[in-house]
Fold:
Amino acid sequence: MTWTIDAGHSHIQFSARHMMIAKVRGRFQTFTGNVEFDEQNPANSSVNVEIEVASIDTRDEKRDGHLTSPDFLDAANYPSMTFVSKRIEMVNATHAKIIGDLTMRGVTREVTLDTEYNGQAKSPWGTTSAGFAASTKINRKDWGLTWNVALETGGVLVGEEITIEIELEMVKMVLEEAAGVAA
Structure:
């Protein structure tokens, strides 16, 4: 069954060390995707997400501009990044490892999302939603994001390790909607 991301109730966030002493946090405001969620056998599910790079928001316009420049994500040449699952390994009934390809800046690397299934609920409008939380850590240099500045006191301006945290609320597509999408 196809489920789509409810972007109004979902978040894709990240954090990185700044000057080795603090964390800078940001998020992407625009993303789309779907999950083919096999409720009977979740390991048979699949995930496909596309994130608009220019929608980055770190609460600092100057920093956002630098992050979308060729020094980092190069939004002009690579306007989106994607995650496409390759397999799902169930840990228990509510936890799984989703292994897939993360592509950003034209570079594709395999990542593992530690994922928690938070259950389902029916909305007052008759739709069914499912909730998921996922996280991973990546080294930004693996995707060619190597820009940095050495600090006088030692260390660097931007840490290499990026923590990614995802909260997704997915909405089950009803048959009429699915038929309309296929038409």
In short: Residues 175-182 form the longest helix (8 residues). Residues 176-183 have pLDDT under 50 and may be disordered. The chain has two helices and eleven strands.
